[in-house]
Amino acid sequence: MQKFNIEYTDTFGGEANYSWVRRATIEVPDNASDLTLVRLAKKVIGLTGVKCKREQWGDDIVLRPYSSCTICFITFKE
């Protein structure tokens, strides 16, 4: 099992602002696809059904929900 940290926060000028933040930790099987990881992260953070722009930053995934000044970081927890 792999662990991932999730941080969902607001943005200001397109950058993470952290005036409020929701954090969670999830576990996924070692062979889980990125799609599975993103779907689980969106479910835990409350973004199920919300369309997002997805960015890949190395091992990290960043989700930017459309029409919302928010951002979600999915990072590998060692």
Description:
- The chain has one helix at residues 34-45; strands at 2-12, 15-28, 52-57, 60-65, 70-77.
- With 78 residues, it is of the alpha+beta class.
- The protein has one domain (2-77).
- The chain has a five-stranded antiparallel sheet, covered by helices on one side.
- The chain is globular.
- The termini are close together.
- The model has no long low-confidence stretch (mean pLDDT 93).
Give helix % range: 10-25%
Number of helices: 1
Can you tell me the residue ranges where pLDDT is under 50 for at least 5 consecutive residues?
none
Shape label = globular
Key features?
alpha+beta; single chain; 1 helix; 15% helix
Task: Summarize, please.
The chain has 78 residues and is α+β, with helices and mostly antiparallel strands.
